[in-house]
What we know:
The chain is α/β, with parallel strands linked by helices. The protein has a single domain, classed as Rossmann fold (3-Layer(aba) Sandwich), CATH 3.40.50. The protein has five helices and seven strands; from the N terminus they run βαβαββααβαββ. It has helices at residues 12-20, 37-49, 82-94, 104-124, 145-164, and strands at 2-6, 25-30, 55-58, 75-80, 129-134, 167-172, 175-178. A seven-stranded mixed beta sheet has the order 3-2-4-5-1-6-7, with helices on both faces. Helix 2 links the parallel strand 2 and strand 3 (55-58). The chain starts with a strand and ends with a strand.
Amino acid sequence: MYLITGGARSGKSSHAERLVSASERVLYIATSKILDPEMAERIAHHRASRPAHWRTVEQYRGWQSLIGPDNDPGEAILLECITTLITNVMYDAANGVPEEEWEFGFLEQQVNQHIDGLLAACATCPAPVYLVTNEVGMGIVPENRLARYFRDIAGRVNQRLAAQAEAVWLVVSGIGVKIK
C-alpha cells in the first residue's frame, strides 16, 4: 500500500495518477458522492480527465468486493480519496442527527471500522494499492467544532495509513516528495 498526501489542490491526484500509470491496467475507486450540483460538476470533471481504459468504481465501503487476495497483481488500484471517505462515513453514521449534536467518539469508531477493513483488504491484496488523502492539519485550528473534530479524525487516520504504507509521498505545489 502506498499513501499520497498533500493539501487541497496540491497536485496529489496528478502525482498518484503518474505513479499508477506505470501499470497497463488501473482500477480507480472514487469515494465521492454527488450531493449537490457543484459536486456533480467536480465528479464529471474527474471522470472526463481519467484515461478511458481505467476501470472505475464509485464506492466508499465494502472493500472486500474491490480489494483483496483475488485482485490481479498487474492491475494497480488507486483509491481517491480517504478524507472524502471519512466524510461519507461520518455523515452516514450520524444518521440525520444535526451536526451540533454529533457524538464524535462514536463517529470516529465508525470511521476506524472502515479504515480497519480497508487496511485488512490492502494487506491481502497482491496488486499495488495507492491511497490519496488530504493533509488537513497544517493550517490554523478551525473555528467550528465539526471542522476541528474532522481535522483530528482525519489526522489520526492518515497517521495509521502512513504507518502501514510501504511508501508515503507528500505533494506540495505539484511536486511529490517521498517521505517514507
